Amino acid sequence: MAMSRDEIFEKVQEVLVDALGVDDDEVTAEATLMGDLGAESIDFLDIVFRLEKAFGIKVPREELFPAEGLLNNPDLVSDGKLTEKGLNELRENVPHTDLTGFEDDPDINKLPDLFTVNAIVNYIDGKINAA
Amino acid sequence: MRWIWIDKFVEFESGRRAVSVKNVTLAEEHLHDHFPGFPIMPECLMIEAMAQTGGILVGEARDFQEKVVLAKISKATFFDFVRPGDQIRLEVEIDMIAPEAASTRGRITREGQPIAEIDLMFSHVDQNLAGKKFPEENFVFTGMFKSLMREIALIGKPSDDASTESN
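Structure tokens for the assembled complex are given below, as produced in the milestone run.
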């Protein structure tokens, strides 16, 4: 079942409004999940649960939010910052994300700022329209 | 779980849904202050009752191996006051469950009348928050809550007692 990007965006918007208690107009394509929409770590799981339902697909959490997965590996995180190994892993996982600036201070609290509404739309687009 | 705020389970389907009840009494001291001359059950304590009902349902689904903690109140809507002498019925079902977390949907009723709708998320803390060390023992499920299950037979799982009784 193919969906246009606009249709996907609308559904993603609905999911984020429900999961984060924000208004429709706050959920722009460029909005960052944590910085602009106030998502906390448990919200990422909530979003994954709701996306799976809304689109009827399986969303491996580490695929959509690879940074979240990194945080669960003590090899890759030390003292609240990504280790060099962690940074390398992140570069591999999110090749289309600009990490400039983040690399200088890889504070894990800033990781979710790398993820925008658009990133979710891209991911879903690739997932349901690629096949 | 270090305090118990529900009275017993009356239905329990492993990994799916559970129903508990709580009797509200004027012997609960906080009701005298909430509010003087107009005692009503605080809404936050209805959320606590739902969190215990849902938390035990989620915990049992993984044989109480995970440390299940309340992580998010996705929704809490209240329709009526609960007063001393009332019995409330808490129905909860698992919406989603994953290795790291679970979400539940719940409603509270009194004699069939809607009191509240409360949706929650629980975190399996050992699967999150990497790098932070929690005690080995399961400080959430200490076993003290097991009396709550006294009247229900687990549906969907063979009972441990049944297998040992034959000896």
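Chain B has three helices and six strands. Residues 160-167 of chain B have pLDDT under 50 and may be disordered. Further analysis is deferred to the final report.
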